[in-house]
């Protein structure tokens, strides 16, 4: 790790003061609460918000019938006054009588019908069109009430109701809503300046004006933080740099458990990795605790599976593999891969570890490779730019890799990841995310049940058994759940971080003095 000396910090701040001064003469958002993003938003229509930055801003501009931006991922009502499950395939919904769009139009049943049912049309072609395909019939009962009948029971559909509702009076007849975004969320759109977005409060928030500024370069973003050019940065400071911001007088760092899941994935058709004892040995050969301490500065938690401990469907009573290199060597012997020369330099076998070219991820892979060398496995780390890397993973062209699921909210995603019908091929890389070719008929059966069952208690039981099977079969080595890290201007009050890292906390945040007041 690079050690930042006081003189370097002073130089950084001096440079940033010049940068901030130049920005302030041109910045249309003086006096706003400034949030720095590491990637630009790609559109603000909720039906097309697949980019993370877009989704976060959309969650403030638009409102759905409910929201899963909660402490456990369990849905809470928003535009809906009530949602009644009449049967596993029928929902009856009543809208809040006071729900309105930013232009004053009331949020009505037709707006919901249009949003859901037109996503799959030839005109709209939303990436979320799968939602409309689940609906057999949408029946409007009144301007503020309606029924949704599904083709078959579908548990994830309830969470799908968090999709932001658009104004049908404006959007009908267009592939995307024309003009400025008009939603029904707590903030309304003011303007967009290239990659930057300015909002102002609509109803409820204490923040009057909210400015999202995109700074893609890590160093420049850090300079902006240190130089008083921002009020909030979330999950955009590398863990190794946290001591720098923690020492800055004007900043405070808060962390909270996340739903992010980092894992090691195996190709289960590989000549070595198809053996369970080899996979167990690899799990035992990784000192996860020391990695969390050294690389993450203790801002991550050990993982037992895809679902984080703060998730409503989490089941922690499963088989685990704590660091035990001696036991790892024994398992490799039992699997038939004995050490060829005892304490000599020859490995038991060699495997390739593919990773993206992200420097932090490469350094993690190299550390894991070093640890596995101690149990006799030679690991060659190969890094690739993202497009090439992801194409190889989707084509199952790998032996060992590490990736992250950024926010696991709905447990039905386990079906996408581990069901045997979701094994992609080179010809159909989009067939599913079961890229290691994991097969277990009982798990398939349970995952199908979990997708159909709509009662939460029963779903929790189903997914508990799924988690037990996955922990035993080890298609993944569950590494850790990284914390969500927010860096705030000192004096900012009431901001909180949700497990899915959305900006729900901005709805109640009381800002410190604005940039205008600081001058």
TrEMBL record:
GO biological process, one term: peptide transport
Highest taxon in the source lineage: Bacteria
Gene Ontology molecular-function annotations: peptide transmembrane transporter activity
Record-annotated Solute-binding protein family domain positions: 76-407
Signal peptide limits: none
Keyword Signal: yes
Gene Ontology cellular component annotations, sorted alphabetically: ATP-binding cassette (ABC) transporter complex; periplasmic space
This protein's UniProt keywords: Signal, Transport
InterPro entries linked: Peptide/Ni-bd, SBP_5, SBP_5_dom
PROSITE patterns (alphabetical): PROKAR_LIPOPROTEIN
Family: Belongs to the bacterial solute-binding protein 5 family.
Family annotation (PANTHER family): OLIGOPEPTIDE-BINDING PROTEIN APPA, PERIPLASMIC BINDING COMPONENT OF ABC TRANSPORTER
Protein name: ABC transporter substrate-binding protein
């Amino acid at each position: 790790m690079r050690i930042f000396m006081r003189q370097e910090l002073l130089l950084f701040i001096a440079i940033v003061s010049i940068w901030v001064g130049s920005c302030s003469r041109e910045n249309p958002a003086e006096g706003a609460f400034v949030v720095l993003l590491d990637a630009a938003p790609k559109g603000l229509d909720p039906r097309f918000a697949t980019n993370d930055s877009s989704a976060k801003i959309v969650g403030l501009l638009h409102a759905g019938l409910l929201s899963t931006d909660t402490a456990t991922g369990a849905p809470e009502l928003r535009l809906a006054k009530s949602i009644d499950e009449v049967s596993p395939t029928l929902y009856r919904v009543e809208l809040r009588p006071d729900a309105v769009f930013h232009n004053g139009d009331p949020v009505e049943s037709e707006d919901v019908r249009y949003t859901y049912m037109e996503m799959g049309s030839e005109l709209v072609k939303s990436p979320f069109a799968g939602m409309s395909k689940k609906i057999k019939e949408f029946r409007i009962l009144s301007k503020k009430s309606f029924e949704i009948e599904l083709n078959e029971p579908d548990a994830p559909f309830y969470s799908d109701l968090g999709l932001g509702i658009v104004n049908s009076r404006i959007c009908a007849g267009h592939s995307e809503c024309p003009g400025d975004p008009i939603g029904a969320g707590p903030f309304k759109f003011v303007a967009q300046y290239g990659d930057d977005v300015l909002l102002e409060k609509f109803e409820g928030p204490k923040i009057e004006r909210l400015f999202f500024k995109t700074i893609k370069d890590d160093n420049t973003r850090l300079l902006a933080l240190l130089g008083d050019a921002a009020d909030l940065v979330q999950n955009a400071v590398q863990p190794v740099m946290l001591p720098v911001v923690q020492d800055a007088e004007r900043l405070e760092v808060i962390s909270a458990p996340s739903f992010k899941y980092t894992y090691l994935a195996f190709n289960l058709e590989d000549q070595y990795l198809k053996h369970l004892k080899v996979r167990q040995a690899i799990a035992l050969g990784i000192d996860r605790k020391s990695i969390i301490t050294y690389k993450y500065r203790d801002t991550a938690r050990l993982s037992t599976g895809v679902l984080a401990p703060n998730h409503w469907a989490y089941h922690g009573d499963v088989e685990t593999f704590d660091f035990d290199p001696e036991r790892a060597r024994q398992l490799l012997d039992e699997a038939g891969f004995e050490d060829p020369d005892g304490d000599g330099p020859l490995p038991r076998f060699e495997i390739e570890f593919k990773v993206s070219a992200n420097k932090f991820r490469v350094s993690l892979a190299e550390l894991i490779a070093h640890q596995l060398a101690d149990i006799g496995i030679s690991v060659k780390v190969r890094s690739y730019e993202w497009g090439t890397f992801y194409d190889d993973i989707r084509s199952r062209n790998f032996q060992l890799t590490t990736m992250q699921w950024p926010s696991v909210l709905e447990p039905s995603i386990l079906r996408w990841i581990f069901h045997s019908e979701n094994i992609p091929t080179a010809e159909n890389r989009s067939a599913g995310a079961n890229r290691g070719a994991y097969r277990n008929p009982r798990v398939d059966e349970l995952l199908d049940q979990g997708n159909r069952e709509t009662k939460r208690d029963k779903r929790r039981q189903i997914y508990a058994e799924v988690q037990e099977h996955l922990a035993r079969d080890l298609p993944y080595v569950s590494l850790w759940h990284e914390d969500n890290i927010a860096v705030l201007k000192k004096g900012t009050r009431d901001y909180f971080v949700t497990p899915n890292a959305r900006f729900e906390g901005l709805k109640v945040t009381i800002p410190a003095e604005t940039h205008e007041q600081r001058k």
